[in-house]
Amino acid sequence: MESLPAAWLCLKPGRHHSRFDIRRSGKIAALAQLRALAMSGIMHAAMPNSHSSMPDIAALARAIDRPLALVGMMGSGKSLVGRRLAQRLDLPFIDSDAEIEKSAGITITEIFELAGEERFRTLERNAISDAADSGPSVLSTGGGSICTPETAALLCDRTIVIWLQAKPETLLSRIGSISSRPLLHTDDPLATLRDLAERRAADYGKAHITVTTDQLSAAAAVAAVLRALDSHLAVS
Ligand code: S3P
Question: Residue 42 phi/psi, 5° resolution?
Fold first, then answer.
C-alpha cells in the first residue's frame, strides 16, 4: 500500500466517519472525503498538531519540574495509568499507598483496622510530602488524599495534580476485589462509591488537569493525560 499522509492515519472510525475507508476508496477519493470532512468541521480530530496528535514526549519530559500527582476515586486507574505514564516519560513511579505499607509493615486495611482512618491520613500526608520533595516523578495517590486540606495544599502547591475522573459504575467494574479497599466494606459498594464521589467532587475539582476515562483503555488514558499535560505546560 502506498504511504499515506500522517493526518489520514489519525482518522479513526467513529460516528461521523464510519463509512470513511481509505483501503477501499483509494487516494483520490480519500482526499475528496478528507476535504469534505474538513469543510464540515470534523477534520480537526485528524489534523497534525490538533488535539489528537501526540506531543513531543522528550520536550514534554524536559518541561516537567515536579511530580505529576494522579488523584481520583478508587478504581480510576491511578496505579495502572501512572505506571505507564512514568514509563513513557522515563520518570520514577511512586505509589503513596505502597510507600505507607512499606514503612508501616502492614497493609492499608490493617492500618484502618488497627489505627483508624485519621492516623492513615497522617501517614498519607507524610508519604505525599516526601514524594513532593523528591523531584519529578509520577505519583499515584490514595483516593481520599486530596480531601485532607493539608494534603490538598501540598499537592496543589508542589505537584501538578491530574484528576482521573470516571463514573461510579466504571470504578466498580475496574476495582474487582474490594478486600483491599476498607472504605468499600459496606453492604452496597456502588452506593458508597456514588456517595464518596459526590462528597469529594469539589476536592477533585482542585486538580490542575482533569481527564475523563470512562470510555478509555489504559493506553488511551495515558495518551489523553500526555496531551492534556502538554497543553497545560504549553510545550507544543
Ligand atoms: C482510599 C483509597 C485507597 C486507599 C485507602 C483509602 C480512599 O487507595 O488509599 O483505602 O479514601 O478513597 P486507591 O484509591 O488507590 O484505591
Answer: -85, -25
Distance from the CA of 181 to the center of ligand 1, in angstroms?
6
C-alpha cell at position 229: 499535560
- pLDDT, tens only, 60-85: 999 999 999 999 999 999 999 999 99
Question: What is residue 147's three-state secondary structure?
Answer: helix
CATH of 57-232, one of 3.10.20.120, 3.50.50.60, 3.40.50.300, 3.40.30.10: 3.40.50.300
Identify the three-state secondary structure at position 164.
Answer: strand
User: Cβ < 6 Å from ligand 1: which residues?
Assistant: 74, 78, 97, 108, 142-144, 181-183
Degrees (nearest 5) of the Cα angle 81, 202, 93? 25
Looking from the CA of residue 141, the nearest atom of ligand 1 is 15
What are the residue ranges spanned by the domains of the chain? Answer: 6-45, 57-232
C-alpha 74: how far from chain center: 12
Compute, in degrees rounded to 10, the torsion defined by CA atoms 185, 189, 192, 198: 140
Look at ligand 1, atom 10, and give the residue with the nearest C-alpha: 181
Low-confidence ranges of the chain (pLDDT < 50): 1-25, 34, 36-50
- Residues 221, 223, 228, CA angle at the centre, nearest 5°? 95
CB contact at 8 A, 47 and 41: no
Q: What are phi and psi of 139, to 5 degrees?
A: -115, 115
